[in-house]
Amino acid sequence: MLDISVPLMLFVLVLFLTLLVVLNRILYKPLIKFMDDRDNSIANDLNAAKNLSGNSEVLHAEAEGILDEARSRASGIRQKAIDEAKVLAESKAENKRAELDKEYVSFMEKLESEKETLRNSLLSQMPLFKESLKAKFSKL
């Protein structure tokens, strides 16, 4: 049959307890410490990420504000340039109108003087035309 040896059982028990104490100091405590440190590190990283995301939202809102201000300034500059171009175009058109009006007046004066010259020329030639017409009618 099976003999139970008490001294051997005590020896195995002492050996088992000694092994537990040694493994606890060498393996289990450093392993548990490593896992706790890792959990703390993850928690710290999550907190830092939350802080950074909150900070990034503030920065994003600030950037949007700056972009809106830049858009409004650009719109103002564009409108100012358009207004200046309209004023310049209007002044050029007005100058051209004035120049064309002067040329028109000059042309009309020249035309009137040519008309007067032509009338005087025709009036001076009138007796010759009468003579030539009389001569033609007399031939008929």
Protein model, in words:
- This protein is an all-alpha fold.
- The protein is 96% helix and 0% strand.
- It is built from 1 helix and no strands.
- The N and C termini lie far apart (180 Å).
- The model has no long low-confidence stretch (mean pLDDT 91).
Query: Distance N terminus to C terminus?
Result: 180 Å
Element pattern in H and E: H
Structural class by SSE content: mainly alpha
Tell me, briefly, the overall form. rod-shaped
Cα-atom Rg, whole angstroms?
58 Å
Short key terms for the protein model shown above:
140 residues; mainly alpha; 1 helix; 96% helix; 0% strand; rod-shaped
Please specify the SSE layout and strand pairing:
Blueprint (H helix, E strand, L loop, with lengths): L5 H134 L1
